[in-house]
Amino acid sequence: MAGKIQAAELVAFDTETTSLNYMAAELVGLSFSVKAGEAAYVPVAHDYEGAPEQLDRDWVLEQLKPWLEDDSQAKVGQHLKYDANVLNNYGITLRGIAYDTMLESYVYNSVSSRHDMDTLASKFLGHTNVSFEDIAGKGAKQKTFNQIDLEVAAFYAAEDADITVRLHQAIWPKIETTPELVSIFKDIECPLIPVLAKMEQTGALIDPSCFMPKALKSQASYKSWRSKPTKKRAKAST
Fold first, then answer.
1. Is the pLDDT at 227 greater than 80, yes or no?
2. Rounded to two decimals, what is the model's pTM?
3. 41 - beta bridge partners?
């Protein structure tokens, strides 16, 4: 597999984790696809009772780190900012982000209300993905990915990578017909992924003194409004 992804022109890449909150998420596995209809899943942390032995997570990441951090190795994903943030928790800086199917969908049709993988697969491929609820359940008893049976998890994760390749092949040619959209994606949207990821990881400093005068003014205005008789207060708000 390592040889295939290094030799490929473009690789679809996805992480499977224990949480949508990247700050709390633990990496459970990684999936890859270099060709539509073919994908592989590398499990590293399925820990349910009776789970089969898996490759050590630290060892796997050590082997993949040169590729993940290589800017010349082109990668495509669905919402790669999340994956970049997860990998950052393990000391890896994701580079080589060439395409992101969520952003491709947004650039192609910015007025669409949904750009998630399941919606895009149905819209562009006529395909119904296996949903997370299908394999993990829902509500208070919903399992996290590390608790999912490995065979079931492998199909779900591999499908994510495969669908990512297929979505890119379906959406990108549509964008290419309009040079302005290509420029928006390549010059603005895609380069912003690592910038926004870094901002989320680092946070932003806020000077409270800049907000206090406005906050106090707003508070004073609210108290003044509350002190008015009901009829006058209603008139003032219209």
1. no
2. 0.85
3. 31
Look at the block and give the residue holding tokens 């040889």. 3
Q: Residue 77 in contact with residue 68, Cβ under 8 Å?
A: no
User: Would you state the pLDDT for residue 233?
Assistant: 45
Contacts of 36 (CB under 8 A, 6+ apart): 162, 165, 166, 169
**CA 40 to chain centroid:** 19
Helix (H, G, I), strand (E, B) or coil at 78: coil
Backbone angles phi and psi of 113, in degrees to 5 = -85, -15
For 166, phi then psi, to 5°, come to -65, -35
Cα 163 from Cα 120, distance rounded (Å) = 9
pLDDT at 159: 98
Determine how β-strand 27-35 pairs with β-strand 11-17.
antiparallel
**What's the full length of the chain, in residues?**
238
How far apart CA 5 and CA 11 sit, in angstroms, is 6
Query: Residue 204's pLDDT is what?
Result: 81
Tell me what the mean pLDDT of segment 95-109 comes to. 98
H or E segment to which residue 31 belongs = strand 27-35
Instruction: Decide if 41 contacts 157 (C-beta within 8 A).
Output: yes
Helix (H, G, I), strand (E, B) or coil at 10: coil
Which backbone phi and psi does 131 adopt, to 5 degrees?
-85, 160
Amino acid at 207: D
Q: Which of 23, 14, 18 is nearest to 83 (CA)?
A: 14
What are the pLDDT digits (tens) for 30-71? 999 999 999 999 999 999 999 999 999 999 999 999 999 999
Contact predicate 4/34, CB 8 Å: yes
